Amino acid sequence: MSTRFPDEPPFSGFNAPVRVEADIYDLEVAQGEVPEQLDGTYYRVVCDRQWPPMVADDIAFNGDGMVMSFRFDRGHVDFKSRYVRTPRFEAERAARRALFGAYRNPFTDDPSVVGMNRTLANTNVFWHGGMLLASKEDSPPIRIDPDTLETVGVHTFDGALTSQTSTAHPKFDPNTGEMVFFGYAAKGECTPDIAYYEADPAGNLIHETWFQAPYSSMVHDFAVTQNFVIFPIIPLISDLDRIRNNLSHYAWDPSKDVYLGVLPRKGRVEDLRWYRGDTRFASHILGAYDDGRHIFIDTPVSETNYFPFFPDLSGAPYDPARTKGFLSRWTIDTMDGSRGFREERLTDHAGEFPRMDDRYETLPYSWGVMGLYEVPGEQRPGGGFRWIGAVDLTRKRTTAHYVGDASATGEPLFVPAHDGAAQAEGYVMAVVGRHDEMRSDLLILDAGRIDAPPVATLKLPLRIPYGLHGNWVTTAELRQGQ
Ligand SMILES: [Fe+2]
């Protein structure tokens, strides 16, 4: 059987699988100069299918993880990309075809792979305990060699990970070096069980608490402060009967409320409190902090489900106007006896992929950056994230950088200018697709002057699929891990 991808949007045009593992020594700098003091590596992961899908209407999230690195050294940048050799990748490569079926639906798999780890490790790549880990939320992470990007193997914290899953959005406490994370669907696909963990700076598990959510749903991200951990339950529900009947893993149930599950850091299940709110869609958390009593959580919020490929159980058609996400603040008062929370919109620029200066994770902070698909008063053709927005939370002011015609950006990332730099003193990096040229650029912007021309534009001779998340690891951190 010949390898041929469907002529459908998830698999064609700029989104067509690239299927190239590349090494580019010293990227061309098309404009500006790369700051010489940047000494570290920007790791990212994207979805890039190795094989045509087994099911016709499969979704982009079901693509193989391709990890890439931009290594900065004295004003020069080297690029590398490698597929994550998951057990699934290796099985499919040996067969020269897809063996795993629909997104998070093991009932659609080829009989030869029943019971095998289904992860694609395609959502985030992060550094902890001297290890580079690529992760998708349906499985434990996969350890990657930070220099060669070769796959080391499935990482289960030396067998201590009791959950079947592990989030792609762990949080890092800058005061303690601890990694705070969780697994949802922790007892198997569509189960309401959540396992909350903390790991010490060396990567050893030091805390574990299990509980059940009010209903089974996608718990893609969560919020962590110095004193609390908050689990948002939004009505993108999952149900084993759905996937047994060949329906999508998730569906939007607007009859359900939002619940925020609040635990004290390292708390036990008896400490868990649920705070209820009206139906909302939210996915990524920009940041969160607390003052001992109030918890502040900043996240883009929309009226309804953002993902067009997960249906609305009420039968409502997909309405793009109602899916626009606006960065908003959820405030919980843990002492007033209420079981609700307040919501306040922070910007009128619609967008997603919010990132902060990660040195302020869990702490009071005042700045963030995100991809924008709408800027008030500006009309630009095309789709996707066409601006990079810097949000000053103190002044509630958003400044935008337009990435160019026939272009769109992936998740922007903040990188400090140097050790000891002030909050937001540094650079914003983003991989931007140039659709007319069918290739990508890496933009380096001044975080303090996001609307100025780029500090540097690095020209990639190849196309990088619109992927998900990434992180900066300093060379000093990498050396500590070796
Ligand atoms: Fe994410």
Q: What would your notes on this structure say?
A:
With 482 residues, the protein is mainly β. Helices cover 4% and strands 39% of the residues. It is built from 3 helices and 33 strands. The strands form 7 sheets. Strands 20, 21, 22, 23, 24, 25, 26 and 27 form an 8-stranded antiparallel sheet that branches. A hairpin with a 5-residue loop joins strand 12 (193-199) and strand 13. The protein starts with 22 loop residues before the first strand and ends with a helix. The model has no long low-confidence stretch (mean pLDDT 97). Bound molecules: fe (ii) ion.
How are the elements arranged and paired?
Blueprint lengths: L22 E2 L3 E5 L7 E8 L17 E9 L2 E8 L3 H9 L28 E5 L2 E5 L6 E3 L6 E4 L16 E2 L6 E6 L8 E7 L5 E8 L10 E2 L3 E6 L2 E3 L1 H5 L5 E3 L5 E7 L8 E5 L3 E2 L4 E4 L3 E9 L23 E8 L8 E15 L10 E8 L12 E6 L4 E6 L4 E3 L3 E4 L9 E9 L4 E8 L9 E4 L10 E5 H6 L2
Antiparallel strand pairs: 1-5, 2-32, 3-4, 3-33, 4-5, 6-7, 7-8, 8-9, 10-11, 11-12, 12-13, 14-15, 15-18, 16-17, 18-19, 20-22, 21-22, 22-23, 23-24, 24-25, 25-26, 26-27, 28-30, 29-30, 30-31, 31-32
The protein binds fe (ii) ion.
